[in-house]
Write a structure and sequence with these properties.
By secondary structure, the protein is of the alpha+beta class. About 30% of the residues lie in helices and about 15% in strands. It has three domains: about 1-165, no CATH class; about 185-290, no CATH class; about 295-425, Immunoglobulin-like, CATH 2.60.40. The chain has helices at about 1-15, 50-65, 90-100, 110-115, 125-145, 150-155, 165-170, 175-185, 195, 205-210, 220-230, 245, 265-280, 365-370, 390-395, and strands spanning about 295-310, 320-330, 330, 340-345, 350-360, 375-385, 405-410, 420-425. Helix 2 runs antiparallel to helix 5 (about 125-145) and helix 8 runs antiparallel to helix 13 (about 265-280).
Length: about 425
């Protein structure tokens, strides 16, 4: 009885949390198709009730034995596959599905397993949709014949069937959730790469290096993610070797020069997504405790630039992090409202970079930072220097009080644009 409840819960969880619109980070589940796919050749009434074993062997077992993912993969990166509901023998499969409440013997077309198969996103992939129809027709034909077999109706099977991971793990690997994470951690940063990698701005680079340089797909984060995975920019089998990490850090040749440093904010964000994506692809999440915890802070890259002059030459090529705090009626804000980090340019005693606005997740300020503006006023800039290269040794490390090198106040309207930088003098030591 407990197994029946558990399996039914898992299926209901899949039906509720699965197969949403991949383009919407928080969509409502898509309802099953009003008209199930039909095939004149597979009309159940044309099949003799004694042929259920043959149908199972010819149409269901190939799904179980196929090395390719089922149509479930269109909505789930991992954790759910139609194979999870099939066993090597017909009697075992039928008994397990029946015991779990997934087969309706009186109204076979109302079987929950058919509802599960027929879930689809609002914009299904044509190839995957064809696979889904074939799966649906195979199970529909088999169920219609199997429910007429008295031996199957009394068959027993004690092992579990269905997804072997908790609903939370299934939800985490849902493709719309994956896309939302990609947008939060990587898509927000692609503006920094647009000059060389966006097709509306990189004609010169295309002439020199070819079309493959255009990995940004305009206004389409899902297509961009797909391209990155297909072309090894994101390597789910060996995430540290993803070109999206190696090239901007100059670990391999990059015509655009160094864009980030191992351990800086952008690198951390990229690794957060890539490592998580790889873990899902490799099926490493077996329990809720395995899932990564969401970051408490969200950020948005802006075109607001901060320049710090008079930086001592001794800090040349060290990573400087600038955290910005706003003056309020209660004093300086407890949490930073903006941040940026980049290497110091010692020969000219300066540091400059664009700001990323930051806010606690789910806060009102988190909604407002999407406007990419800082209110004019009085601000405090706290500076931290990675003098021991601890971020290079451990990219998860953070700069703290031991890395603090000073602070400076500034009054600014925070105009956007490279030519309109807010300038702060490095504090005297």
């Amino acid at each position: 009885m407990m197994r029946h409840i558990l399996v039914l819960f898992c299926l209901q969880a899949v039906l509720v949390i699965g197969c949403s619109n991949p383009g919407d980070p928080s969509p409502e589940p898509t309802a099953p198709s009003e008209t199930p796919p039909q095939s004149g050749e597979d009309t159940p009434s044309r099949v003799n009730s004694n042929n259920s074993a043959g149908i199972f062997e010819e149409r269901i077992l190939p799904i179980f034995q196929s090395p390719n993912p089922s149509s479930c993969a269109e909505c789930h990166l991992s954790g759910v596959d139609l194979k999870d509901y099939i066993r090597p023998r017909e009697s075992e499969t039928f008994a397990a599905l029946l015991d779990a409440g997934l087969i309706d013997t009186k109204n076979p077309d109302d079987s929950k397993i058919l509802q599960f198969i027929n879930r689809r996103p609002k914009q299904p992939n044509l190839i995957t949709d064809k696979v889904r129809q074939e799966e649906y027709q195979a199970f529909r034909e088999w169920i219609h014949t199997a429910v007429q077999n008295p031996d199957l109706l009394v068959a027993k099977f004690d092992d579990s069937i269905g997804p072997q991971v908790p609903a939370e793990v299934i939800r985490h690997a849902r493709r719309d959730r994956v896309l939302a994470s990609f947008m939060e951690n990587i898509w927000t940063e692609v503006g920094r790469c647009a000059a060389c990698h966006s097709p509306d701005r990189n004609q010169k680079q295309v002439r020199e290096y070819g079309e493959q340089v255009s990995w940004i797909k305009l206004r389409d984060p899902q297509a961009t993610l797909n391209y990155m995975v297909e072309n090894n920019l994101i390597n789910p089998r060996d995430p540290q070797k993803s070109l999206l990490l190696l090239k901007p850090t100059m670990q391999v040749e990059h015509g655009g020069g160094q864009k980030m440093v191992v351990g800086d904010r952008s690198y951390k964000q990229f690794r957060r997504f890539i490592d998580d994506y790889a873990a899902m692809v490799q099926g490493k999440y077996d329990a809720v405790s395995d899932l990564p915890q969401p970051e408490g802070e969200v950020s948005v890259v802006t075109d607001i630039w901060l320049k710090i002059t008079g930086v001592p030459a001794q800090y040349d090529k060290m990573l400087l992090q600038a955290d910005v705090y706003r003056w309020t009626n209660e004093g300086w804000s407890k949490l930073r409202v903006a941040t940026s980090d980049r290497l110091v340019f010692g020969p000219k005693n300066l540091w400059q970079h664009s700001l990323s606005l930051t806010a606690p997740r789910d806060s009102q300020w988190a909604k407002e930072i999407n406007a990419k503006r800082l209110p004019p006023g009085r601000y405090l800039v706290k500076l931290y220097m990675d003098r021991t290269k601890k971020l290079e040794k451990d990219y998860r490390a953070v700069l703290g009080e031991e890395d603090f090198v000073g602070e400076a106040e500034v009054q600014s309207r925070w105009p956007a644009g490279y030519s309109r930088m807010t300038i702060v003098k490095f504090p005297s030591q």
